[in-house]
Amino acid sequence: MTDDTPDVARAIDEARAAARAAGLSAHNDAAEGSGDAGDHGDSEDAEVVGGPVTSFTWHLSGLDSAVAAGHLEKILNLVPGVQARVVYSTSMAWVTAPDSLSPDVLRDLMAQAGVDAWLTTASLRRRAERLNINERRRRMRRHRQSQQRDRKHRDSTAPQRRSTQTSATTEVLYTARALITPARLIVAVLLGVPVVAMQINSSWQFDNWQWLCLALSVPVVTWCAWPFHRAMAAGLRRGMSALDTASSVAIVLAFVYSLIAMLITDVGDAGWRNDPGWTAGYHDNGNGAVFLDVACGVTILLLLGRLFTRRTRLRSELALSSLRTPPSDTVTVVRNNRRGKPVKSEITVGEIRVGDDILVPRDGVVPSDGEVVGGRAEVDAGPFGGVDRHTEVTVNSPVYAGTRNLGDTLKIRVERTGSRTRLSAVQRWISAAERDEAQLDQIATRSASLLVPWAVVIASCAAAVWLLVTDATASAVAAALAVLISVAPLALALSTTLALRLGLARAAAGGTLLRNANTIHQLADVDTIIFNRNGTLTHGPMAVTGVTAAKGENPELVLRVAGALSLESTHAVSRAIVRADREARDAGAGGDSVPHWLETGAVTIDDHGTFSATVDLPVTDARTGETTTRHVTAAVWRPRDLSELADPALANAAVGGGTPLVVSWKGIARGVINVSDQVKRDASTAVEQLEDMNIETTMIARDTYPVARRMADMIGISTVLAGIAPGRKAATVRSVHAQGATVAMVGDKDVLDCLRVADVGVLMGSADRIDNAESDVVLLREDISSIPEVVSLVRHVRATVDWNLWLAWGYNVIAVLLSVTGLLNPLLATVPMLLSSMLIEWRSARITHRDYTNRSTVVANWRPRRGKLRSWAGENLLPWQTR
Question: Which intervals of the chain are annotated as region Disordered (predicted)?
Answer without folding.
Answer: 20-49, 134-168
